[in-house]
Amino acid sequence: MVDTSSIITALGAGSGIDMAALAADLATAQFQARSERLVARSEVLERQISAASTIKSTLSLLASALGDRVRTGDLSPQPSIASPAVASVSSPAGTTGTGSYTLEVLALATRQTLAGPALASADSAAGAGTLTIRFGTTTAGGFTADSGQPALDVEIASGATLSDVAAAINAKGAGVTAYVAQTAAGAQLVMKGAEGAANGFIVEATEIAGEEGLAALAWNPAAGGDPARLLSAAGDASFKLDGLAMTSAGNATGPVAPGLSLVLTGTNAGATTTITFGNPAAAITGAMQDFVSALNEVAEQLRTATDPLTGDLARDPGARALRRALSELAGEVIMPAAADGAPRTLADLGLATQRDGSFRLDPARLEATLASSPEGAAAMFTPGLYGIFATVDRIARNAARTGDPGSLAGSIARYQIQSSDAAKQNAALAEKQEALRASLTARFAKADTRISASQSTLSFLRAQIDVWNADKN
User: Fold this and answer.
1) pLDDT tens, position by position, 229-242
2) I need a surface site. Which of 5, 108, 303, 349 has the fewest CB within 10 A?
């Protein structure tokens, strides 16, 4: 008897193999190891990008918040005045003041106000030509030109009304404003200059023949101008600080003493008021507590990310550079021009670095500094080139420099490039895997065809064998 099972086995008949699935499985197996390595690398890169971006963002927010706090000015001694109706007081940015002052305001700075003759209405024809305004010291009886201020020419178009004249003056934006007042006498052009004695003015008129009228608006007290049209004369502010006579062209005086500016609002001749500077110790203590807490948030993120065993940035140069900068922060001289005995470092304000890279506030050290040099401590909280804000801002900017491969931003850029490369490699690998699958599928399809032909032959042979076996029986 012929053994049909061996023939069937030899010919592979009835194998039942899913050739498409087999092709896919073989293609996947061929590239699986490389694909898994790329996926793992991509996941690491994404974690590195996330960790570095988070630290950089937190540091940037710290610098920004510190800048906002410094610019409010409440961390430096702020002046206050006993009689706020007389003046408002402030410290110019980047300056500090101490002690106390007396203030006596004798006169406020004034603007010249000049009225024109009355016309029927604002729409009355005013003439055409040019109004020339010259600046200087004006009184009811005379005028002294200020050679330092050029004359202002205002062209008045043909057919202009009184309102048009006011608009033309305002359009120049050159220290004189105008409006039309509807008074009991009629419509009158009112012109106002800037504060200060040197900002008085006279008005000259050049008329176009046939459209006369501007001459009525001209005024010069030295040439017989009606003194009644001068509603108020320009004058300087006059005041005494600690008994010293001072003047100012405007009521906003600018700095008049270290850390002190005034805006005069009233007079108090014969009744001085007092200006004093407060102690910012409480505000500075609170600011340092907030600063240490914020620094520790950055330090904690950095410590986790650079852990030698589990940190995604354990060997990152940008993270190491930032950690080194923070470790040196407390002892860094941030006030190089400070006077002898004045605080120069954040350690003088109580900032202390601990062994794990975190920070703590030494209240005794801070209290001693505030007691011995409150002005020096306050000076460290300024928006200038030196101080706490400038130092932290510099660290944040260094970390954000994309062109520096040793910065956090440089690391982020590098990881992003590597992540993009990994994605491209993974895509290329997928294309190769698909090409192999398609090739194997085609080859297995041909094998299936041959197996089908073999199965037909096998069926014939089996029938013949069955016949032979029947005959023998």
Assistant:
1) 999 999 999 999 99
2) 5
